[in-house]
Design goal:
The complex is a heterodimer. Chain A is of the alpha+beta class. Chain A has 8 helices and 27 strands. Helices cover 27% and strands 35% of the residues of chain A. Chain B is built from 11 helices and no strands. In chain B, helix 8 runs antiparallel to helix 9. Classes of the chains: A alpha+beta, B mainly alpha. Chains A and B meet through helix 1, strand 8, strand 11, strand 24 and helix 7 of A and helix 2, helix 8 and helix 9 of B.
């Protein structure tokens, strides 16, 4: 047990840094680790080497819980064997001196010893005690379930760990952004981000597909919580198999779409302004929605538009989309409300080489500005705020951008965890075992009846012995004693210690 | 009419009233704890017991170990205890009515943000204390638990206050009722366990310095016997631990339904895990030679610290998936 306590302490301690330092696997903010290392160039790389950015999959964290499991197994298996033996054995014999036990009472009865013993035995049997009567003593024991619960709790921890392992070995987790009107097919290439387990068969994902028909969001329009989200709904048309019939489904927060073992969760949303770009030659070289990433609660969003097909030079645009626009002199462009009251697209422009041709992967949300020149107007950068329907024309006939309309996009998280049913069953067993093992008291009751040869009265000695830390319930013994025949109330009895002071 | 706005205002007023009555009850408990008490006479207060039987001797020792004031001091102390307990019950009723009114005002379980959670959590702590008061001699915990409740409610109505309103979509689930209610109940009972453990440690330290209690003066000397306090703490933890386990598991099921994974080491999840592991260590320490008693007590207090940090620190200092509820 000492080992268990120390390992549990170590486990608690080891879990702390993962909540304070940014973590790689915990994708609340995927850029957090990189930023932390950049801001702390001295300790950052060392923390990284020691696994502090992946605490929960680091070798030292695994070492602690695996040691704990080993120590637990080593403790639980012998206990299971002992339980098996004690479950088959008779209740233990009483000590010679019952008065030494926790709760001991003595009283007299006019009934014959055998009568008293039988009454005690049947009373205890009715209360599901295991009872043996011999040599003037009733031996009774109850509460074997406590040990059963204890073992069940510890074994289900092992099963739980197994379920977690199955899930992380064979499952996957992915994220994808889908704009209104666009479709998603469940193949690895369509994911924006895909995290498979080491043994996941990423080539045979459940072959479903869906189209995001419409996304609606409602926000609190008045009161102190103005702007808080109230309702999100993604209306999708799903085909559960490639040849299946289309089926209209609404995906909401807390109401995922389930296709076999794969679940599609709605985790976020934002705006995708629809723009069209004509280049210097007057040809439309770009048209469609562009996802702008929200960065605050009022859905102020930032994003870039890359137009690699523009001539004579490639074009890039960078800026903000504000559903309810306001330009604060201090804070800069900010949205005042998450819904579209006065949508505006604020853009600056770049010309030159977008850097897409060199084969280096680059973010769709950033411009690589190494070979780009900012378009300027006099000595000021060229910048425009557009409302839907408005256009801006770059100086020197380099092109025109039209802000056509606004679409919404939804973030979906798609997950498949084949181990979760195992984990759930283990968790239920764990809770059941824990409750039983903490709630049930294992205790023994002995009742010894003696009558001197030729005597008129029998002396009844009764005692309880708790095998658990919590003492016996005094009422249990009292109820046995009141059930005995011919007892003399005047008989001396040691009352149990009064719990009130 | 009982419009939501009226109910919300009624709830606020009930909470303010409850704070006032809690403060009063706390003062009475504090006065009672500070009342001068004459040392107990060694005999006379004991029930006539069968002399000679070893069990009777244990009974006698156990009784003298508790501070037994002399008769007139005892009746005055009892009177103050009753006044304090009555005030606590009154405050509890106001507090409960405040929570119910808030629930009716918002038309959902009244624990959807940090203000509501604090108000409901302190209600659970008072409820747990009152339940224990019926069965165990834990009056000495009163002053500490009420101090904590008053302080938390004071912070709730000033710093954390959130007007009645609807929930963000992520919280709009019946799992909110189940998961958070379990966390609130276990938190209330853990509070009683932590208070009893702290007093136990205090008392035990005094006993270690002065085993015969000849010269122990001051607060520690007036506390119930260490075994009594430890018993209360142990019972509280035995109840609260499975409820906390349930809260964590229910949270995992909800997370699976709402975020697509049942466990993702989000800071809130991590600290729930840390709390669970520390209390598990406490329960193991209780049956480990050399750890029982003081060290186990410190483990329980550390567990309670982790629980509080999960509620205060994680909400206010760390950004995570659980941050949407605001303060």
């Amino acid at each position: 047990m000492r080992t268990a306590v120390l390992l549990l302490l170590a486990l608690a301690l080891a879990a702390v840094p993962g909540s304070l330092l940014p973590q790689r696997g915990v994708a609340f903010d995927p850029g957090a680790v990189t930023r932390f290392v950049r801001d702390n160039p001295e300790v950052g790389p060392w923390l990284d080497r020691l696994g502090f950015f992946e605490v929960y999959s680091s070798p030292w964290f695994a070492a602690i819980y695996l040691l704990l499991m080993v120590s637990m197994t080593g403790c639980v298996l012998p206990r299971a064997a002992r339980l098996w033996q004690s479950a088959r054995a008779e209740p233990a014999r009483p000590p010679t001196n019952l008065a030494r036990l926790d709760d001991h009472r003595q009283l007299l009865s006019t009934a014959a010893p055998r009568e008293v013993l039988e009454a005690a035995a049947s009373h205890l049997r009715a209360r599901r005690f295991r009872v043996v009567v011999d040599e003037g003593v009733v031996r009774a024991e109850k509460g074997y379930l406590r040990e059963v619960g204890n073992l069940m709790f510890h074994l289900s921890l092992l099963v739980l760990l197994f379920g977690v392992a199955v899930g992380s070995l064979f499952g996957f987790e992915g994220r994808v952004i889908v704009v209104e009107g666009a479709s998603f097919t469940n193949t690895r290439l369509q994911y924006d981000e895909f995290t498979p387990g080491p043994l996941t068969d990423a080539e045979s994902l459940t072959p479903f597909s869906f189209t995001l028909d419409d996304f609606t969001a409602e926000f609190e329009t008045s009161g102190p919580q103005r702007g808080s989200a109230r309702d999100f709904q993604a209306a999708v048309t799903v085909r559960r198999t490639p040849s299946g019939a289309p089926e209209a489904v609404t995906v909401e927060v807390n109401h995922p779409l389930r296709v076999e073992g794969t679940k599609v969760f709605l985790t976020g949303h934002g705006y995708a302004p629809v723009v069209s770009v004509r280049d210097g030659r007057g040809q439309t070289v770009f048209a469609g929605p562009v996802v702008f990433v929200p960065f605050d609660g009022n859905l102020s969003s930032e994003g870039v538009i890359k137009v690699p097909d523009a001539q004579p030079t490639q074009l890039g645009f960078e800026g903000f989309f504000l559903p309810t626009a306001s330009v604060d002199p201090v804070a800069g462009p900010r949205s005042l409300f998450p819904d579209m009251v006065d949508p505006q697209l604020l853009l600056t422009a770049y010309t030159g080489d977008l850097g897409l041709a060199d084969g280096q992967p680059q973010s769709v949300f950033r411009l690589d500005k190494t070979d780009l020149i900012q378009v300027s107007e006099g000595d000021q950068p060229f910048a425009r705020a557009l409302r839907p329907g408005e256009s801006m024309t770059l100086p020197d006939g380099q092109g025109t951008l039209t802000f056509e309309s606004v679409s919404r996009f939804a973030n979906f998280q798609i997950a498949h965890d084949p181990g979760k049913e195992i984990a759930l069953v283990a968790a239920v067993a764990l809770l059941l075992g824990l409750t039983v093992s903490l709630g049930v008291r294992r205790r023994r009751i002995w009742i010894r009846v003696t009558r001197p040869p030729g005597g008129e009265t029998s002396t009844i000695e009764a005692a309880t012995y708790a095998l658990t830390r919590r003492g016996p319930d005094p009422d249990e013994l009292s109820s046995v004693l009141t059930a005995l025949p011919g007892t003399v109330t005047a008989g001396t009895a040691d009352s149990p210690p009064d719990r009130e002071d | 009419m009982l419009t939501p706005a009226y109910l919300a205002e009624l709830s606020d007023r009930l909470i303010y009233s409850a704070i006032a009555v809690y403060a009063l009850a706390m003062l009475v408990y504090a006065y009672r704890a500070a009342m001068p008490r004459r040392p107990a006479p060694q005999t006379g207060v004991l029930e006539p017991a069968t002399v000679g039987a070893p069990a009777a001797v244990t009974v006698a020792v156990a009784s003298t170990a508790d501070p037994v004031p002399s008769t007139e001091g005892a009746s005055a102390a009892r009177r103050y205890e009753r006044i304090a307990a009555s005030l606590t019950i009154l405050a509890f009723v106001l507090h409960l009515a405040g929570v119910v009114a808030r629930g009716l005002a918002v038309g959902r379980a009244p624990w959807g943000n940090m203000y509501e959670f604090t108000v409901a959590g302190t209600l659970a702590a008072t409820a747990a204390y009152l339940v224990f008061l019926r069965r165990h001699p834990v009056r000495d915990l009163g002053v500490w638990i009420l101090a904590l409740v008053t302080l938390c409610l004071g912070l709730a109505v000033t710093v954390l206050y959130t007007p009645a309103g609807d929930l963000v979509p992520a919280l709009n689930s019946y799992w909110l009722v189940i998961h958070v209610a379990a966390a609130i109940i276990s938190g209330g009972v853990f509070t009683v366990g932590a208070a009893a453990t702290a007093l136990y440690l205090l008392r035990r330290r005094a006993d270690a310095r002065d085993p015969r209690r000849a010269a122990t003066r001051g607060y520690a000397g007036r506390l119930p016997a260490a075994a009594t306090l430890e018993g209360v703490a142990h019972t509280a933890h035995l109840f609260a631990f499975p409820v906390w386990t349930f809260a964590v598991l229910a949270g995992a099921i909800w997370a699976e339904d709402s975020w697509g994974r049942y466990w993702g080491w989000d800071p809130k999840e991590t600290w729930a895990f840390i709390t669970w592991v520390l209390y598990a260590a406490y329960l193991h320490a209780q049956s480990t030679a050399g750890w029982r008693g003081t060290k186990a007590g410190w483990l329980a207090l550390t567990g309670y610290g982790a629980f509080l940090f999960n509620f205060v620190g994680v909400n206010l200092l760390i950004t995570g998936l659980h941050s949407y509820a605001g303060v």
